Amino acid sequence: MKRHTFPLAITATLAALVLTACGEDEPSGSADDPASSPTQSESEPTTSAPVSTPTESPTTSDTATAETVEAPIFFAADTANGQGLFAEVRTIEADNPLEEAAAIMVAGDANDPDYRTLFPAGSFESIEYDGEKFVVTVPDDGWSTRAPGMSKADAELAVQQLVYTLQAVEGAEVPVVVAPTGLLFGVDASTIGAADELDVRGLVNVLSPGEGETVSGSFTASGEASSFEATVPWEVRDETGATVLDGFATAEGWLDGLYPWETEVDVSGLEPGTYTFVAMTDDPSGGTEGHGPTEDTKTIVVE
Fold first, then answer.
1. What is the pLDDT of residues 170-184, one digit of tens each?
2. How far is CA 205 from the centre of its chain?
């Protein structure tokens, strides 16, 4: 089973404001030479008062520093083969990224409108990582059994939504332990690891651009995919759904998991407006076999 570990990017944002005022006292003056004549000698001095600028040179440096983490958070979405998990890269505070990422995941607070959570309303009491495992504590037994309307498949994928999110945020493929009951939606989560990504993830995932991102000229699109012969077709569609650009990227692999892909997309010839970037898995059968291609879409704004 191949797993690709998302890198954890901690970005320190530094904002500094420096105000500097400076001046100098510089006396200035002029004196006329005395004028002389054969009959009269007269000296009439001209006095010029010095122009003085008060000197004030305090330097104030106010520096505010905030650390943030770019964390992949997993949500569910529909695919050609049922539900799958998709990662969305989000910027969160670095002081407690596991709990913040889990809160966004549970709330279903995805930027992409196609993404959703499999969790009912609620929250975790705490999430801790000790270097060997994640210990997730729930406040009561409300999540020990399946919520009304939740299927067994939904429950199992919800548990994997949690496992994949915690492992991606921390960058550690270690098991998750749910306390105190060891159950999550009726699934044994006393010690549970990540399932094979080919079984639980959407087979193509756009990580960049983000939903609603503004682009111009050309931009880099990237993500992960498991697509036939590592070919990842892509399209740019206008607001009518018509394809106005297309191409393909080549992933780093495809047989045993999702692999990174990246491509340059030149939108310099498009009119400004709202478009949809679509990445998909390759379907050599043309739709005559299997479930058809999986797609992941992102709205972009072309300037």
1. 999 999 999 999 999
2. 14
Q: Looking at the domain assignment, is residue 55 inside a domain? A: no
Domain interval for residue 160: 65-200
Domain boundary among 200, 229, 248: 200
Please list the residues that pair with 169 across neighbouring strands.
Answer: none
Total of domains in the chain: 2
Which one has a higher pLDDT value, 5 or 229?
A: 229
| Reported pTM | 0.80
The torsion of the CA quartet 165, 167, 168, 173, rounded to 10 degrees, works out to -150
Question: Is residue 157 domain-shared with residue 212, that is, in the same domain?
Answer: no
Rounded to whole angstroms, the Cα distance separating 216 from 269 reads 10
Q: What is the pLDDT of residues 148-202, one digit of tens each?
A: 999 999 999 999 999 999 999 999 999 999 999 999 999 999 999 999 999 999 9
CA–CA gap between residue 226 and residue 5 (Å, rounded): 15
299: left (phi over 0), alpha (psi -120 to 50) or beta: beta
Q: Which residues pair with 260 in a beta bridge?
A: 224
Q: Show which of 165, 185, 200 is a domain's final residue.
A: 200
Q: Residues of the chain with pLDDT > 90: what percent?
A: 74
Please count the CA atoms within 13 angstroms of the CA of 166 that sit on its side-chain side: 30
Place of tokens 């995805």: 110
